[in-house]
Write a structure and sequence with these properties.
Elements: H1 4-18, E1 25-28, E2 34-36, H2 39-46, E3 51-57, E4 60-65, E5 69-74, E6 79-85, E7 94-100, E8 103-109, E9 115-119, H3 126-129, H4 142-149, H5 156-161, H6 171-180, H7 194-218, E10 244-248, E11 251-255
Parallel strand pairs: 2-9
Antiparallel strand pairs: 1-7, 3-4, 4-5, 5-9, 6-8, 7-8, 10-11
This protein binds zinc ion (ZN).
Pfam families: Fapy_DNA_glyco, H2TH, zf-FPG_IleRS
EC number: 3.2.2.23, 4.2.99.18
Subunit structure: Monomer.
């Protein structure tokens, strides 16, 4: 499931390859991928526009177009974009094709959970407008983070996953962030000490920043815990204690019971 670093990497790739280019044609192979407007209108409204910029908000891709339209894409489980020559054979998992002259930007999605919406802007698109703080953005400050956590009775893990509080973190990076911050995922947020809140803040920024850099440079994620997470009978990369697996915040959670308190 793509999380912030994965989506940011796709946004940067699209920015390099299609920003400034003109959409000369649109094909919708899977109408279910288009949530709004109706696929016929989607095709009509998208054709002929120019890609101004490609941004990201939380786990959403924002493809900003000429004429005050934004194509909002959620990759969900298996969504991805590939830029190929227009003549290249169409892969069976291709759902939508944006044609840029002699090149195609093809949206492939094996599991079909990914979706697209065309809206005037993200401010007028509820799911994006309601997102919480952007963890790599300038508005995510230690003070706002502290204020956000004040009085919250949920576990720290469940708060990290709440897109309306902080946007873009999913199950895997939440585990990495908590491991790096040496915090137990089931701790109630309001019981954290001041120093721990600061440690968590720094861990969020560091983990996501490093993941973005590594993914866009080397094409694979990075994280000491991430690299072992999910395997059987693993030892904590920091202290050697066996890693525990539990269901926390409704999600399979990996953590070290010895050095995460
Ligand atoms: Zn440990």
């Amino acid at each position: 499931m793509p999380e912030l670093p994965d989506v940011e990497t796709v946004a940067r790739r699209l920015r390099r390859t299609v920003a400034g280019r003109h959409i000369t044609g649109v094909r919708v192979l899977s109408p279910a991928t288009i949530h709004s407007p109706h696929p016929r209108r989607f095709i009509r409204e998208l054709s002929g526009r120019t890609v101004h910029m490609v941004d990201r908000r939380g786990k959403y891709l924002l493809i900003r177009l000429s004429g005050a339209r934004t194509l909002i894409v959620h990759l969900r489980m298996t969504g991805d974009f590939e830029l190929v020559p227009h003549a290249a054979p169409v892969h069976p998992h291709t759902r939508v094709i944006l044609r840029f002259g002699r090149a195609d930007l093809r949206f492939t999605d094996q599991r079909r959970f990914g979706h697209m919406d065309l809206a005037p802007s993200e401010a007028e698109f509820g799911p994006v407008a309601e997102l919480g703080l952007e963890p790599l953005g300038a508005s995510f400050t230690p003070g706002r983070w502290r204020a956000l956590l004040r009085g919250r009775r949920g576990t720290i893990k469940s708060l990290l996953l709440r897109q309306d509080l902080i946007a873009g973190i999913g199950n895997i990076y939440a585990d990495e962030i908590l491991w790096q911050a040496r915090l137990h995922p089931a701790r109630p947020a309001h019981r954290m000490r001041q120093a721990e809140v600061g440690r968590l803040y720094r861990s969020i920024r560091r983990v996501l920043r490093r993941a973005v850099t590594h993914l866009s440079r080397y094409g694979r994620p990075v994280g000491r815990f991430l690299e072992v997470r999910g395997e059987r009978d693993i030892a904590c990369p920091r202290c050697g204690h066996p890693i525990a697996v539990a269901r926390i915040a409704g999600r399979t959670t990996y953590y070290c019971p010895n050095c995460q308190r």
